[in-house]
Amino acid sequence: MDHVPARSPSRAAMRFGAGLACAVALPLGAQQYIADEATITEHGACELQLWHGRRSSSVLPACAPLNNLELSVGFTVVWEDGRDGHFEYVLEGKTLFRPLTTDGWGAALVVGIGRDPALASTAPQLLSYYVDVPLSLSLAGDAVLLHSGTGWLHERVGGHDVDAVTWAARAEVRLRRHVHAVGEVYGAEGSAHAPAEYQAGLRAFARPGRVQLDLTYGARLGDGRRGQGWTFGLTLITPPFL
Description:
By secondary structure, this protein is mainly beta. It has one helix spanning 14-23; strands at residues 46-53, 56-66, 69-78, 86-98, 105-114, 127-139, 144-157, 160-176, 179-189, 197-207, 211-220, 229-237. The protein is built from one helix and twelve strands; from the N terminus they run H-E-E-E-E-E-E-E-E-E-E-E-E.
């Protein structure tokens, strides 16, 4: 497959060096998909993720100012909250335990404050903390990529503290040179959140390593009339500044 360095593992410590040459061939980041992956923005570079959908719209810049550390700060507008919509935020840090390489596997750790993107709820989250452990697997020379994540979420809604276990699983299959099919399921257990949901769509690389386009449709499992609906996403990636 084409070499697509965006959201590739950073040139971190020497122990990551052997895997970097393969890892930079992996596709870009998750965009509006929920399941995260064991890759981070290239060291010294930044990316800007934008997506707009029926239920919410977001802007999420991410940069890797230090070796093996990606920092993100973003804002979301939730449209379907029964009122006129509301703003939410997210502050997130991500590091790699093991970088994802071609025909290999990887693992990462994500810690965040703010709105966990895995939430299906449209109610305002007054205060939320979350931790996620993404696992990724590359097969057939990156023609098939599998990502899964399991995490913990603590939020305060309506004056009550709520804890939940979050989960997500995503598969990405290369159809053509610059076109991939992507599908995922995700949900949260142990809380009052909505039922599990799915998303599926196409991913195109307008400029490999720099510009990615996503078009997805999402709904609740067993109830296709509710859920994410159509979402369009755009990711822009800079060369390293450092």
